[in-house]
Design a protein that fits this description.
Layout lengths: L1 H30 L8 H12 L4 E2 L1 H8 L3 H13 L4 E7 L2 E5 L5
Antiparallel strand pairs: 1-3, 2-3
């Protein structure tokens, strides 16, 4: 029973740490000069990237998730890559270009 209690406590601690990291990142984005260049869609992509480190993003996924056109999704991803907030991956999924959240610096 004690092992389960410790595991639950560790999980709660991990969840709280991730929530704080997300809050810190969003606060940083809001204060940075980059924020003036971004639209709501860009910020939604970034939130998802912070919540799911290592996740690959494609324009099709973004278009489906945000209910936007494929061209708009491509534009959002390209802009985030230009701002060094996402990294263009050398890997492709079914001929689709993939983007990743950059590793922590």
């Amino acid at each position: 029973m004690e092992v389960i209690v410790k595991a639950i406590a560790a999980l709660e601690s991990h969840i709280n740490k991730k929530k704080q990291e997300l809050a810190n990142f969003i606060e940083w984005i809001d204060r940075s000069s980059v924020a003036q260049k971004l639209k709501r869609g860009h910020l939604e992509i970034l939130k998802d990237a912070v919540k799911h480190p290592g996740k690959e993003f494609t324009a099709q996924q973004i278009a489906d998730n945000l209910g936007i056109s494929l061209n708009t999704a491509r534009t959002y991803l390209k802009k985030l890559a230009e701002e060094d907030l996402l990294v263009l991956s050398s890997k492709k999924k079914n001929r689709a270009v993939c983007y990743n959240f950059p590793p922590q610096r």
